[in-house]
Amino acid sequence: MDDNVSDNPPATPPVPRRRARWWWLGAAGLAAAAALGVAANRAWHSPATLPWVLARVPGLQAEGVQGSLAGRDLRVQRLHWALPAGKGELTITGLALSGLAFQPWWQPALHGGTWAQLTVKSLRADTLHYRSGPPSPAPQNLRLPVQVEVDHADIGQVNINDLAAVSSVLGSAQLGADNGAHHRLQLRQARIEKAELSGTLQLGSDAPMPLTASLQAKGTAGPAWQAQLKASGPLARLQVEAQVSGEAPAGRTAPTAQASATVATWAAWPLAALQLRVRQFDLASLSDRLPETALDGQAQVQSTGLDQPADMQIQLRNARAGRFDQQRLPVSSLAATLVAPPAQPGHVDVRGLELQLADGSVQAGRITGQGQWRDGVAELALQLQDVQPARLDARSASVRATGTLTLLASQLMATTAAPAHPQFT
Asked: How confident is the prediction for the chain on average, in pLDDT?
């Protein structure tokens, strides 16, 4: 045996320092990723995260938020949103969402450019109030980054600007349906004063943004009546048809009203044309705030362009004239000619006005005149001929008036900051 040969095996070469360094960096990275995942999971499920996220949406204020990003239910006591680009303000109270599901899409091109879908099984709210902002230019399209589907919506009361409140609103919505190509709304039920409403709407997302809509209404108090409204065409120029009919009272003609209009949605003067005919029409059947009437006549509006004034002709007769204290209208006939420059939508000139006053079949005087409307301020120069105030309202003095009267009324239009508060002098 060779004494120079060792019985011990050769020593294992040492691990290079660089390889050990990468091993420790990899282990540290995995540990950091795991810690980040745990933190993200906790944040996703934490009730404190959602209020933090909502507080960082520009213009959005949310109070009494309950829920988490991972949850399927969400409650907000009060939500106020100043919409971007001055589009108005939206306030919702008592908001409750249930059955929430969020599905992101990593290939938006396969879904019409939308990045995700949000599904809401049920949306409930006590009140929804929207106050619009100043007029805005026509949009190029109405596509949304996210598809939204609400299976059931139940809103106690809806207020838009200073219009009459709409209550008991039930419906559903599909925003960005068909890979973002359409928006659909279905109104199953709603109540407004003395009427019950239902209807549908579909609006295209891309130019010319075609719209088809129908609305049905029926009276819920007083004389029975029903109405239907249909609108169709590109959003920029809609054709609107409306019909109202009621049951004939004993020994009288059934009340009816028909209207057709062309609406230029984004124009400074949106009413491009109007034809209205009424027969035995009772305003009180629509609202308790309106007087009892039996109107026959017509109204016509014709506009040929922004450089030509719009002409309005009104001819009405009222077969049920009566005093204000009787909840009637003490006018037996009305004739008016109005002219409005479409380029100045806040301006209207009253070229001619004639009112024949009456208390039932007894004449109560005559009023003629001219005037103007300028951005919520109306000024009328009137000539009174043998006007008898006591026949207009029994609470008035028993006198006769003949002469000239100038009437100035201001603050007749609501603004984005405040509702209308009429002032007369």
From this structure: 84
